[in-house]
From TrEMBL, chain A:
PANTHER family attached to this UniProt entry: ABC TRANSPORTER PERMEASE PROTEIN YPHD-RELATED-RELATED, GALACTOSE_METHYL GALACTOSIDE IMPORT PERMEASE PROTEIN MGLC
Protein name: Methyl-galactoside transport system permease protein
TM spans (from-to): 12-32, 108-132, 138-158, 179-197, 228-247, 308-325
Topology with respect to the bilayer: Multi-pass membrane protein
Taxonomic lineage: Bacteria, Bacillati, Bacillota, Clostridia, Lachnospirales
Automatic annotation (TrEMBL), chain B:
Gene Ontology molecular function: ABC-type carbohydrate transporter activity; ATP binding; ATP hydrolysis activity
Catalytic reaction(s) noted: D-galactose(out) + ATP + H2O = D-galactose(in) + ADP + phosphate + H(+)
SUPFAM superfamilies registered for this protein in UniProt: P-loop containing nucleoside triphosphate hydrolases
Species name: Anaerocolumna aminovalerica
GO term, biological process aspect, one: monosaccharide transmembrane transport
UniProt-listed SMART domains: AAA
Top-level taxonomy: Bacteria, Bacillati, Bacillota, Clostridia, Lachnospirales
KW Phosphoprotein (keyword) present: no
Pfam family, one: ABC_tran
Protein name (database record): Ribose/galactose/methyl galactoside import ATP-binding protein
Keywords on record: ATP-binding, Cell membrane, Membrane, Nucleotide-binding, Repeat, Sugar transport, Translocase, Transport
GO CC entries: plasma membrane
EC number(s) on file: 7.5.2.11
KW Ligase (keyword) present: no
Role: Part of an ABC transporter complex involved in carbohydrate import. Could be involved in ribose, galactose and/or methyl galactoside import. Responsible for energy coupling to the transport system.
Amino acid sequence: MQKSSKINKKAISSFVQNNAIIIIILMIIIFVGIKTDNFLSMDNFKNLAVNTAPRFIIALGVSGCLITKGTDLSAGRIVGLGACIAASLLQSSDASGKVYPNLSDQNILLVFALTLAICGVFGFMNGAIISFLKVPPFITTLGMQTLVYGICLVYTGSKPIGSLRKDYTRIAQGSIFKIPYLLIFAVVCGALMWILYNKTRHGKYMYAIGGNESAAEVAGVNTSRVKIKIYTLAAVLYGLAGILLAAKAGGTSVQMGGGYELEAIAACTIGGVSTNGGVGKVSGILIGVLVFELLKISLQFLGVESSYTYIVQGLVIIIAVALDLRKYLAKK
Amino acid sequence: MSEYLLEMNGISKSFPGVKALDHVTLKVRPGTVHALVGENGAGKSTLMKCLFGIYSKDEGEIIIEGKPIHIANPYDALTKGIAMVHQELQPIMERSVAENIYCGRFPLKHGLFIDHKRMYEDTERLLKEVKMNFDPKVKLSTLSVSQMQAIEIAKAVSANAKIIIMDEPTSSLTQNEVDNLFEIINSLRKKGISIIYISHKMDEILSISDDVTIMRDGQYIGTWEAKELTIDMIVTKMVGRELKNLYPPKSNIPEEVVLEVKGLTSISEKSFKDVSFQLRKGEVLGIGGLVGAQRSELFEAVFGIRGIKKGTITYKGKELKIKRPHDAIKQGIALLTEDRRATGIFGVLSIAENISVASLDKYVKLGFLNERKVENLVQENVKKLSIKTPSSKTKIQTLSGGNQQKVIISRWLANDPDIFILDEPTRGIDVGAKYEIYTIIADLAKQGKSIIMISSELPELIGMSDRVLVMCNGKVSGEVSKEDATQENIMSLATKFA
C-alpha cells in the first residue's frame, strides 16, 4: 500500500517535471480566465492565433539552425526585408508617396515568389559562409543582421511603406469559416516542417549534424549542403513571415521584425530545442511560441503596464529553460 | 591503525530502473596497487564515482584510515586525500603545465597575487618526483597524451593524495609510455600511496597490481592477491562463465587483390609518407604500430576525411578520386573510426537513427522515408549482432561501449560495403563483447569482404589478421605474414625508425 503511493508520488512528480511548462501555461489560462471577463472568448482566441502565427513561422526557421548547433541572428532583419520588398511592390495604385510611383499592379503571387527568393539568397549566403568559410554561425548571422538592415534602409530610404493593396492585406486580415488565414498559414507551415523533420532524409541528417557533426560527415552526410539548405529554408520562412506581418499591419517600415530573432530563439529554447544540438520538435516550438504570446496577452488582460511585460518575459525565458533542464539534470 | 587505508563496505547505488551497485566491498591496503576489474557495466566506474564524490551512494560506508567519512563532491574528496585520473583527461589546453597543476589552489603572495615563482618551482620538483622532465611553463597543447596523464598524476601527488584512482590509464598509451607509467606507479607505491587501477588489459593488471577485486553486474565477486591469479581465472570470474577461445576460428580464404594503394603521401608534413600496400578479397589485413605512427590518419585519408598530396588508390582496377567520406561510401568502403564518441555515435539520437543514417538513400520513395523498411533494417541488425537494447528508439548513449560499437557496425553493414576499415574496433569494450566483434570480423572475411583492422593490441592483431602491415613514423616499416606474426617481430618493426 505504502509502496504504491510512493510510486504514484514519483510518477506525478516526474509528470510535473516533464510537462512543467505546459502546466504553467494552463494555470495562467485558468487564472486569467477567472480573473477577467473576456479572456476565454472566441475573439481573444483569434487575437492570440493571429499574433502567434507569424512568430511561429519565424521560430520554425530558426529551429533548424539551433538543432544543428548554430543560430540565426539575421532572422528579424530578413523578416523586415521581406516585409519591405513585398509591401513596396504591392501598394495600391492611388496611394501617394509610393516607392515605385509608376508601377502598375503586379501579380501578387509573383511578388511573393520574388520576395521569398531574395530572402532565400541571404539565407543561402549565411549557410555557405558557415559551411565553407567556417565562420561561426553566431558571427556570420550577426554580420548578416546588420548587412540586411543596411540594405533595407537603402532600399526604402528609411521611409515607411503604407497604402497596401486590399487583395494583399486580405491574406493576413481575412478569414474563412471564422478561421483566420494567418492561422491556416501557420498550421500549413508547421505541418510541412513536421514532415520535413520527421519523414525525410533532410530531417534525419539535420538531427545527425546537431548530434555529432564529425560523425555525420564520416557517415557520408554532406554536412555543408544540409546546412546551406537549413539556412536558406529558414530565410524563406522569415520572408514569408515578413510578407504576412506587413499585410497584417497594412504597412511596414525598416523597423519591422527588429529583435524577432531573439524572441524566436527564446521560444525554441523554451520549447525544448536543445542548445547542445540534435534535439527539438515542431510541437515543442509551438508550445514555446504560445508561452510567449499567452503571457503577453495575459498581462495585457490583467492590466499590467506594457513596460513591465519585458521584465516578466525575461524572467520567463530563464525560468522556463531552467525548468526544462531539470529533466536532464535530474537523471544524474 | 587499521590494516586497510580505504574500506568501502556495502556500497549500493541505484539509477532509475537499474541497481548499478549492490552491496559492493572494496578494501585497499596502504602502499599497494589494487586492480578493479569487471566487464563494462559491472559497476567499476560507478563505484569510483561514489568514492570520488561525483555520485552520492544510497547505502554503505566509506572508511579511510579507520575513520568513517562522508564525501560530498570531488573537491571534498581531494581534501580527504582521494584523487582521480580520468580516462578522458580534461586538461586546459591553452594554459601552462604549472597552471594546470595548481588550478583552483594557486599559491598566493600577500594573499592576493599569484606567486608564480613558487608555483613554477613546486611544479618542477613535482614533475621530477613522477620522473617527468619538462618545462612547467609549456602549454599543455604541446604535450602528448601520456605526458598530460603524468601531469594529472603529479597534480594528485601535489594535493597530498593518499589514494589515486586511475581509470584505464593505458588505453591510449604506447608500450614505452606504459612502462614509464608503471615506473611512476612504483615510485608512488613506495611512498605509501595506494592506487586503484581500473583496466581491461589483463597482462598489465597481473604485472602491476598487488591485489585484484573483481566485480560483475554491480556485485562484488571477490578480492585476490594478484600472484594467485591467471588471466583465465580473472576472465572466468569476470564473465561468470568460461571463455574457451579468445578468438573465433577463421575459415576465410584471401583471393585476388581488390585495393591497391601506391605512394600515398599526406598534405601534412608530419603525417604519413609514401605508403603502399595491397588488400585482397576476403582478407583481414592488420595494421600495427605505435600511437603516433599515423595509421588512423592514413586510413582517414583513404576514406576522404584528410587530404592527400600524392599517390593513388586503385580499387578493382579503377583509380579512385575520393574527396569526402560520401565518395568513399559510394565506392563500397566503410570506416569504423577510432574515437567512437567523437566521430562515431550520435549520442542523443536513437538506435534506429544511428543505424540508418548512412543508408537512408535506400529507404526513400518520392522524398519520403519508408519507416517500416528502416525499422526492419534495425530489427534485423539488432538480432543479427545481438545488440542489447530495450527498443530501437532507445538513445545510443545509454548503451554500453560494446553495444554502441555493434550499432555502428550495423550502420555500415546496412550499406553492404566490400571494404571495412576498422580502427581499434574493440577499444573500451569488455571481454565478452570483444569476442562477438571478432566473430563479426571473421564472418565478414568469410563472406569475401576485405577487412583492414588497425589495432594497438598485439594479441588481437596476431589473433585476427591474415597479414600484418606495420607502420612507424608515418611510413610502412614492414609486413609480417600470419605465420611470422609474433609480438617481438611486430614491435621491432613498429620501432624501426624511432
